[in-house]
């Protein structure tokens, strides 16, 4: 009889605030019974233990339907779920509840970034993990959740002597083309970088690092994501020229400058080990290995220097342009062997279309001299265009004294990307051949 009464009473569902309230029964049997089981349905991003940590219900605990509804409300208040429903029914054997929570997670979810907080991101992340069982690498951008995280970060900063209001919003990276992320930062206006210091560096003096970064960082409004980009662009090449290809910047801290208005940025450097030069391969070109070896300046076994490899890639590009590949590009791939402490480089060449000479224009010469210059010109229409040839040709004309009183000369190259041809214009200033000799004869 008792099981029938309990079954009738428990065949109900907690559906949320929108559910219509029904008139309370005139008399109800006692509803406090132990919980036999708690089941969670509808999870994708979260785990059951995260839900259980919030609802505060466990097997063996005495509970009532009011306790279940309170647990449901706590889950909704997290901002992580669009909807939460709970069902409860008699467990096998009676005199106990079998409870099921059915959740609908909020989507989409976004990665998290911490900017301009002045403390390492990993420390902020650790504080949030400790504060919120729902913390993850991606979160929904709901107002309750963002407000709770902002308050937790603000309290963490205050405990470390930093004041200010923390705000959160969806934002992209500095390029404006990156994926959206939930960015937590101080709501106040960003202060400008007044000074940059480095710690942990031994191989490269601090003055060299400061000179490399100051030229682009001083006076710039501080934003950690952008500042780290500057480190990659300005400081990493300094180390890669010394074989330190695994250099990293594990911590970036800021503090108000006591002397001027702005912030002092302190960068912790992990220089890593020194790596040697392995081999360099060139792919995507039909240049012979002998010619590539002639162009290359790297020496296997030397301390690895990325600048040398980039210089060799530029030489390969220049060589390809001499063959008519005016739009040639190249990229450098570093194959790092941490065990052997060496770096093999691969220069990937993308030749593009081959360009030929379309037309040659000669400006500044008379009808007698121009044909002579055209006859000297070595590239015929339809032949592959050598990008270095126009300047070489003008230098040759000057050195051989072909034109008397030759003034300034220059060349202009115009490419046609539709038919892959090149139009060259040579500009001459000076007198025609033999002019000076004729003048001498007239005086005599």
Number of strand segments: 18
- CATH class label of the largest domain: Alpha Beta
**Helix fraction by DSSP (H/I, runs of at least 4):** 25-40%
Q: How much beta, percentage-wise?
A: 25-35%
Principal-axes shape call: elongated
Strand count, sense and barrel status of the largest sheet are: 5 strands, mixed
| CATH homology superfamily name of the largest domain | membrane protein fhac
Number of separate structural domains = 5
Uncertain ranges: 1-12, 16-23, 432-444
* CATH topology heading of the largest domain: Ubiquitin-like (UB roll)
The CATH architecture assignment of the largest domain turns out to be Roll
Radius of gyration from CA coordinates? 37 Å
> Can you give the mean pLDDT?
85
Spatial strand order of the main sheet? 1-4-5-2-3
Order of helices and strands: HEEHEHEEEHEHEEEHHEEEHHEEEHHEEH
Compute the number of helices: 12
Structural class: alpha/beta
Could you give a short description of this structure?
This protein is of the alpha/beta class and 444 residues long. The chain has helices at 2-10, 48-55, 65-77, 121-131, 143-159, 206-217, 224-240, 289-295, 306-321, 369-376, 389-399, 435-443, and strands spanning 12-14, 33-41, 62-63, 81-90, 97-105, 110-115, 138-139, 166-171, 181-186, 193-199, 248-256, 263-270, 276-283, 329-337, 342-350, 356-363, 409-416, 421-428. It has twelve helices and 18 strands.
């Amino acid at each position: 009889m008792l099981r029938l009464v309990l079954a009738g009473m428990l065949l109900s569902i907690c559906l949320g605030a929108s559910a219509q309230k029904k008139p309370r029964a005139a008399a109800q049997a006692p509803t406090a019974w132990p919980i036999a089981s708690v089941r969670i349905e509808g999870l994708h991003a979260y785990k059951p233990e995260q839900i259980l940590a919030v609802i505060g219900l466990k097997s063996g605990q005495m509970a009532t339907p009011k306790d279940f509804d309170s647990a449901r409300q706590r889950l909704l208040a997290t901002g992580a779920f669009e909807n939460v429903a709970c069902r409860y029914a008699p467990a096998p054997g009676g005199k106990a509840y079998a409870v099921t929570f059915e959740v609908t997670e909020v989507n989409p979810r976004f990665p998290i970034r911490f900017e301009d907080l002045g403390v390492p991101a990993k420390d902020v992340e650790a504080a949030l993990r400790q504060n919120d069982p729902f913390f993850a690498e991606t979160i929904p951008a709901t107002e309750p959740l963002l407000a709770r995280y902002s308050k937790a970060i603000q309290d963490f900063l205050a405990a470390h002597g930093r004041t200010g209001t923390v705000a959160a919003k969806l934002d992209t990276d500095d390029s404006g083309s990156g994926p959206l992320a939930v960015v937590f930062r101080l709501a106040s206006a960003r202060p400008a970088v007044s000074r940059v210091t480095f710690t942990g560096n031994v191989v490269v003096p601090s003055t060299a690092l400061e000179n490399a970064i100051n030229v682009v960082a001083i006076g710039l409004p501080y934003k950690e994501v952008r500042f780290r980009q500057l480190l990659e662009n300005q400081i990493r090449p300094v180390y890669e020229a010394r074989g330190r290809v695994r250099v990293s910047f594990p911590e970036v801290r800021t503090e108000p400058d006591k002397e001027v208005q702005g912030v002092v940025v302190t960068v912790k450097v992990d220089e890593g080990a020194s790596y040697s030069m392995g081999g360099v391969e060139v792919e995507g070109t039909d240049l012979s290995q002998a010619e590539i070896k002639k162009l290359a300046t790297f020496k296997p076994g030397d301390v690895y220097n990325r600048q040398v490899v980039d210089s060799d890639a530029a030489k390969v590009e220049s060589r390809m342009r001499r063959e008519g590949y005016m739009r040639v590009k190249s990229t450098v791939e570093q194959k790092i062997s941490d065990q052997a402490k060496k770096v093999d480089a691969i220069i990937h060449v993308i030749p593009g279309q081959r360009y030929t000479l379309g037309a040659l224009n000669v400006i500044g010469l008379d009808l007698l001299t121009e044909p002579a210059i055209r006859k000297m010109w070595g590239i015929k229409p339809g032949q592959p265009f050598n990008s270095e040839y126009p300047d070489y040709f003008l230098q040759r004309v000057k050195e051989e004294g072909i034109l008397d009183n030759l003034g300034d000369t220059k060349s202009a190259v115009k490419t046609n990307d539709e038919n892959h041809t090149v139009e060259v214009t040579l500009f001459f200033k000076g007198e025609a051949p033999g002019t000076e000799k004729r003048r001498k004869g007239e005086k005599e």
